[in-house]
Amino acid sequence: MSYVLKKTKADRAVDTVLYSGLALFGLATLFPLYYVMVMSVTPIAEVLRNGGFVLWPDRITLDAYRYIFASDRIPDALSITVTVTLLGTLCNLVITSLLAYPLSKKYLPGRNAVLVSIVFTMLFSGGLIPLYLVVSATGLLNTIWALIIPGLVSSFNMLIMKSYFENLPAEVEEAAKVDGCSDLQTLLRIVLPLSMPIVATLGLFYGVNHWNAYFGGIMYLTDKSLMPIQVVLRSMILTPSVSQELGLNVQDLQQLPPETIKMAAVVVATLPILIVYPFLQKYFVKGMLLGSIKG
Fold first, then answer.
1. Distance of CA 89 to CAs 95, 97, 136, 181, 284, Å?
2. Distance between CA atoms of 61 and 246, rounded to whole angstroms?
3. pTM of the predicted structure, to 2 decimals
């Protein structure tokens, strides 16, 4: 026999306030993205007619995107960012898994000392200058590896994966050992296939960080051909001359205001992550709940 809990008027009033607040928060979050997309496809005449503020364009034009991809600057930056994101995320997951799996075993000698040293790096760091000197001394300047290796492992993500591994049934690993699997084979054939939610979650974290990273490009790169999309986007927003940044003639851009070109560049830099995220969302919540750090 099931019972239905009836809500009082006070409960319904609280729900109304909460849902209304969440709806307003959602609109406030989505509106900037919507406005950027609208402005990127609005003709210049309509932009000028409405004083630079358009909520719903009467006509749509893709001239801004044609101008962006007419230059090699944005496509080259996108290719660098895609390469860094895919390669960097793969390296991050491999190293994080290889570090988290042994640390999930309580019988590992020196385990506590290693964990303390890892947590220590979450609280203290050497600073930017020592980090730059290390990257320079290792010959990583002006290479895409400068965007990957300095952030190869996130201590926070490693602890989450370690906690997830600790929650896996020990009997499964014991059965693999009985069948003759080594520790590495157990990790690759048993543990990781059972840990796809946390792998996908941390892969999303690492991937988004790589895609949105611009600080490393500013610090370690001077070669413009290696600049990721976020650095190029930052330069476009800060520069008064979009044509100079894209390497196009001023006459090519006279039909569009600089703000429209910048809005289109923002959409190009943001859209890939928005497309990928829904496919990983089902793993995201499950992975975070099962991999949450115990007290």
1. 10, 12, 23, 27, 16
2. 20
3. 0.80
